[in-house]
Amino acid sequence: EDMYMLYRGLMLPKETHSLESLQFAQELAFKDEDVVSVTYPKSGTVWMQEILPLVLNGGDLTPIQTTPNWDRVPWLEEKRLAVVVDQMTSPRALVTHFPYNLMPPSFHTSKAKVIYVMRNPKDIVVSSYYFHQMAVFLEDPGTFDEFMGKFLEGRVLFGKWTDHVKSWKHTELGDRIMYITYEEMVQDLPAALRRISDFLGSNLSEETIQKIAEHCSFNTMKENGMSNFSLVNKLYMDFDKSPFLRKGVAGDWKNHFSSEQLARFTSVISKELEGERFSLPWSLD
Ligand code: A3P
């Protein structure tokens, strides 16, 4: 447990987060032109770090060719933001795993836009399991069954998935927020990019959409040293255990869940979402 700190009830890795970085996030002055992509961990954060700069700049590849993803579209809550924030040019793109209630005051008073990416929690728990095996700064996940138990109880980074989703479904952001799923991005990336581009008012040509889709495909990103984490120290991520860009598909849970695990998972998640006014885009069973 030494690898984690507790911040307002959330478990966060000390390697990437500190009280200073969390304070820095709370004090960040949001601008109206800012765009924030919000994700529960393992829902497509790094994918959005690739997509957003290209949609905002009309398909200029420079950012994804010259700047590592963590400096290009930094995490609001992590230590790196303080290092790079002064070099960021507007419109700025950020990512965050914060639940809605932890967003800083200036976010609420600004007109900054939000893209909330949702992924099937069954695939999140699988992706997260491999991530915990390769990320040296995270606790060993144990067996898949043990890890699923922790996930369902919220004894994982950023807490329960259901709490995260509920918090971002109950905002007063109106048309400042757009929801998209990882699955729709996997199924038809150009269509997803058109939605994102419309939301951000980017007005991209079909040719540019196709170009961005090609550069943000799983295979291209896996080869992009600025996005596949190959620049990080081996003491931080162990690629012999798993690549960061691991499979990039929807439905890999089917290769990992037993029928008992599926029943348990469905029952816990459905119970926690009982009575909610929104419905999930995928069936859980
Ligand atoms: P898998 O482990 O299922 O492969 P995050 O960036 O939020 O940590 O999420 C990581 C997950 O997003 C990983 O899932 C990773 O492979 C997937 N991902 C990243 N870029 C992708 C892309 N271009 N296409 C499909 N999946 C992508």
Overview of the molecule:
It is a single chain. By secondary structure, this protein is of the alpha/beta class. It contains 14 helices and 6 strands. The protein has helices spanning 19-27, 45-57, 62-66, 69-72, 80-84, 105-109, 121-134, 144-153, 161-169, 182-187, 189-200, 206-215, 218-223, 259-273; strands spanning 4-7, 10-13, 35-39, 93-96, 113-118, 177-181. The strands form 2 sheets. The chain has a 4-stranded parallel sheet. A two-stranded antiparallel ribbon has the order 1-2. The relative contact order is 0.16. Bound molecules: adenosine-3'-5'-diphosphate. Adenosine-3'-5'-diphosphate is lined by residues 39, 41-47, 123, 127, 130, 186, 216-218, 221, 245-248, 252. This is Sulfotransferase. Its EC number is 2.8.2.-. Residues 32-274 form the Sulfotransferase domain. Belongs to the sulfotransferase 1 family.
